[in-house]
TrEMBL record:
Its EC number is 1.1.1.132. NCBIfam families: NDP-sugDHase. The keyword Transmembrane helix does not apply. Gene3D superfamilies: 1.20.5.170, NAD(P)-binding Rossmann-like Domain. GDP-alpha-D-mannuronate binds at E161, K210, N214, H217, N225, Y257, R259, F262, G265, K324. The lineage of its organism: Bacteria, Bacillati, Actinomycetota, Actinomycetes, Kitasatosporales. It comes from Streptomyces parvulus. Pathway: Glycan biosynthesis; alginate biosynthesis. This is GDP-mannose 6-dehydrogenase.
Length: 438
């Protein structure tokens, strides 16, 4: 394919050289004449493993050259990859100035060129940036419609500086955010032959994936370092701890606990986080991430209360009460906390949980209910229908099949989904349905 690459920094330079190495015909564009001259001299404008040799090779063969002339590049290509910088503004917001400018330039050149061209944004940008900011700029400058007169896609890159050439040829995944099928086909074709799964998703999803990745990577490093500092203060070798931690592929290094849902609770997680943070504080070890896990969880629970408040309705149903499915354990159940808060705010509440009836509760559980939710007995309903008949708004905190099959599709009470119901994707578009975090 004939490709132009806008921005010859770390991402653009590596993408341009590697795509040329795969056999595409590539023309790099940068506003910086020094970078353009370097590439045309067969030298890399960035320091990266293998990039020097690769650029020398692909410029010698004629597969890669560079220019400062946007119209020339657009005239010689059928697809543009936009790799300009998106730095932070002083207040932390995303600077889109370079993106906007290059999009205007590409649009103006496309208006002259005619013929189908696909603009692919590789820069990291917040969800909504492409469709709400960049597509309107393109449509205005081209004088046409995206997805009809020209293609648009978002293709975030996941290469690590230092090993980016190696990563390009062995990527963890390829993400194609496609405005329309034809635009996605162009991006998929660019990388044909490379290993790794290809995910074709809506444009804003592709934009968000990059943030999920980077936020998680930062969180992982911060978590490991905080845990290391606590272990050190407690005289434990953190690497020995993490060797065992990492060997657990069921609960730790796995997809467990990584899907948005309701707040956590139970008899272990809150208690153990509290004592770990307390031990760190006693040892004068600052652990901002660990000490904000419980406050984050409390805020998440509060979101559910606010969703009920926003409906303006007073008669509330709650499905689920124990801290997780298949148990009657109510200690530190976030659903108990939720019920208690709603009850305290004067909502007319009915609760159903097939595993929980006061007569069956024993020992610690019974005591827990008696101290934390003394009015539970009068709120408990024996059947799903009783709750549905009562409620104007219904919180679903369980995937109990009896509850799922009884939930009305539309009409009836407003459904506040705390568990991501199996048909949530379809329901999201319906009035009378609210997801907690989706
Ligand atoms: N560096 C990384 O490892 C990495 C990884 C993944 C994603 N990203 C994202 O990719 C994007 C680019 O990052 P980078 O590190 O390569 O940035 P960079 O600052 O190294 O390079 C950006 C280049 O764009 C050029 N440029 C600016 N405006 C231009 C225009 N109108 N026309 C042509 N060229 C123009 C600049 O001169 C510069 O050479 C950012 O959004 C970044 O967040 C970076």
């Amino acid at each position: 394919m004939r490709i132009s690459v806008f921005g010859l920094g770390y991402v653009g330079c590596v993408s341009a050289a590697c795509l040329a190495g795969m056999g595409h015909e590539v023309i790099g564009v940068d506003v910086n004449q020094v970078k353009v001259d370097l590439v045309n001299d067969g030298r890399a404008p960035v320091v990266e493993e293998r990039i020097g040799e690769l650029i020398a090779e692909v410029t010698r063969s004629g597969a890669l050259r560079a220019t400062t002339d946007v119209a020339e590049a657009i005239g010689l290509s059928e697809v543009s990859l936009v790799c300009v910088g998106t730095p932070s503004e002083p207040n932390g917001s995303l600077c889109t100035t370079y993106l906007e400018r290059v999009t205007e330039q590409i649009g103006a050149a496309l208006a002259e060129r005619g013929g189908r061209h696909t603009v692919v944004f590789r820069s990291t940008m917040l969800p909504g940036t492409c469709l709400n900011l960049l597509v309107p700029i393109l449509e205005k400058s081209v004088g046409g419609t995206a997805g009809v007169d020209f293609g648009v896609a978002v293709n975030p890159e996941f290469l690590r500086e230092g090993t980016s050439v190696r990563d390009f040829f062995d990527p963890p995944k390829t993400v194609v955010g496609e405005l329309d099928r034809a635009s996605g086909d162009v991006v998929t074709e660019l990388y044909r032959g490379l290993p790794g799964e290809v995910f074709r998703v809506p444009v804003p999803t592709a934009e968000a994936i990059k943030y999920a990745d980077n936020a998680f990577h930062g969180l992982k490093i911060g978590f490991a370092n905080e845990l290391g500092a606590v272990c050190q203060a407690l005289g434990v070798d953190s690497h020995q701890v993490m060797d065992v931690f990492l060997a657990d592929r069921k609960l730790n290094i796995s997809s467990a606990y990584l899907r948005p849902g309701f707040a956590f609770g139970g008899s272990c997680l809150p208690k153990d986080l509290r004592s770990l943070v307390h031990a760190a504080q006693r040892a004068d070890v600052s652990v901002p991430i660990l000490s904000h896990v419980l406050p984050s969880n409390a805020d998440h629970l509060q979101r559910a209360v606010e969703l009920v408040e926003r409906t303006g309705k007073r008669r509330v149903g709650l499905f689920g009460l124990s801290f997780k499915p298949g148990t009657d354990d109510l200690r530190e159940s976030p659903l108990v906390e939720l019920a208690e808060r709603l009850f305290g705010k004067g909502y007319d509440l009915r609760i159903h949980d097939a595993n929980v009836s006061l007569s069956r509760l024993l020992g610690a559980n019974r005591e827990y209910v008696e101290t934390r939710l003394p009015h539970l007995a009068q709120l408990l309903a024996d059947s799903v229908e009783e709750v549905l008949d009562h409620a104007e708004v219904c919180l679903v905190g369980t995937k109990d099949p009896a509850v799922l099959s009884a939930l009305p599709q539309a009409g009836g009470p407003v459904i506040v989904d705390l568990v991501r119901l199996p048909d949530a994707e379809a329901r999201r578009a319906e009035p009378g349905y609210v997801g907690l975090a989706w």
